[in-house]
Design a protein that fits this description.
Structural class: alpha/beta
CATH architecture of the largest domain: Alpha-Beta Barrel
Shape: globular
Order of helices and strands: HEHHHHHHHEHEHHHEHHEEHEHEHEHHH
Strand content: 5-15%
Number of domains: 2
Amino acid sequence: MSILNDDRLLPAETETRRIARRLYAEICTLPILSPHGHTNAEWFATDQPFPNPAQLFIVPDHYIFRMLYSQGIPLSSLGIGPESSADPRKVWRLFAEHYYLFRGTPTRIWLDYAFETLFGLETRLGATNADEYYDSISEHLQRAEFRPRALLARFRIEVLATTDSPLDSLEHHKTLQSLGLQTTVLPTFRPDPVVDPDFSGFQQSVERLGHATREDTATWSGYLTALRKTRERFKALGGTATDHGHPTPATADLNPSAAATLFEKILARKSSPEDHELFRAQMLTEMAAMSLDDGLVMQIHPGSFRNHNTRLYERFGRDIGADIPMATDYVNNLRPLLQRFGNETALTIILFTLDESTYSRELAPLAGHYPCLKLGPAWWFHDSPEGMMRFREQTTETAGFYNTVGFNDDTRAFLSIPARHDVARRVDCAFLARLVAGHRLDEDEAVEVARDLAYNLVRRTYHL
């Protein structure tokens, strides 16, 4: 018996569900555009088989291992960390034994989708069938049709963007560009290591940036020129966007002299936490100025207290599932940048949030006014059916559909991409069906909006 119900996530009310089914049928086979995510370009450049189910599903996916860790399971026993020597099969058994923890979560939806649609596994995972799952997935992964490039085609992924450090050589993107794949794989410029003074090794990274660009990054003007050159390098390989993971959306508009003085103070390690926040704020405005010049779309992902668990950070490093959402102020923090660039129609800034209280109070009114602003989809902790529906309910009345950008999956877990897009399409169809059933939207309009949300808005906004 199938794990997946054909009507999953569609409305329970009979007539509204019929409308949603019709809408979903119009968009379910559209190609996937994935303009923001964290998959590894090396997977597709080398096209090597994924090593085993644990490495494929568990190790790269913080949604999975943070839940297991919350129940007292050590990360090292899940194969995470350089010193871990955990047997992959034992890791999988441990995961399967605790699969019940994911009941009601979006992670469960994504996993069930991958297990059934890719591997034909139609019984629910648990301790009793852990080895059956492991052996079946392992056998599939040895087949040519389960290599990374073949899966790109199978998933109908038309465009896939990775997220890359400015210090990355982008050698794998160069390889991919020469292969002529059906899927276009693009880099995204993520400058955090060289614009956030709190980033580990910041001063050394700024120096490396100078060496890579042959600019004197000990000076403010040389530093900015090095960043411009690096953005051009990304753009030359097809990149269309930047991404900024600042703690807050604070922006500033210092004069060049004051900015240079602040930069010198930070490089000399004579700065305070307040100086660091002001520098990050200034760099968002500098990045907006550069985007206006070079056309790269700017994404701002603020509001996460990164590496909240200090002990885990010291042992395992970043991105280990210990990032926690914070309250976020967009109205006041963005005003310096918007005073300078808010009315620019040639600039696109996409705002994301982990603070849902800002949807109707701040984000929708801002995007519903300023030409440069668009709203990114429900993100990270809110990338769920409920989170997606709350996003539509709280932003549409003020920002409409066309000041949003469609969906992006923001994932490190490659096999979850089609599942995440399917969830977004179903939820959007459920929302639109309610509008049609309530006589607020004609069904032909709803079909057009559904297509725009699934495909057209993403292509248009990200210049794909």
